[in-house]
Amino acid sequence: MVNISTTKMSSKGQVVIPENIRKQLNLKSGAQFIVVGEKDVVILKNIAPPSLDEFGALIDKARKNGEKAGIKKSDINEAVLKARGKK
User: Fold this and answer.
1) Residue ranges of the domains in the chain?
2) CB atoms within 10 A of CB 66
3) What region does 14 belong to: left with phi over 0, alpha with psi -120 to 50, or beta?
4) How confident is the model at residue 50 (pLDDT cuts 50, 70, 90)?
5) Could you tell me which of 38, 46, 31, 42 has the C-alpha nearest to residue 8?
6) Vertex 30, ends 29 and 35: CA angle to 5°?
7) What's the CATH code, domain 1-48?
């Protein structure tokens, strides 16, 4: 069921998500969102970091893809140093 409410934006650009919506979506303080705006539509999409299990699976996939692409650990170390401006 769609739960519809109204809210206002403060002078600081802050918008309160109504309590009934927060409860329905189980949103807690500190929740993060992607904000998309086009014409007169604003969309908030709740985002959450991956769980440790999901993160482990992502790392495994990245390692396998790196091996397939022929990337070595030394390549990664060099890229990190370059990004930090130390090389």
Assistant:
1) 1-48, 52-83
2) 14
3) beta
4) confident
5) 42
6) 115
7) 2.10.260.10
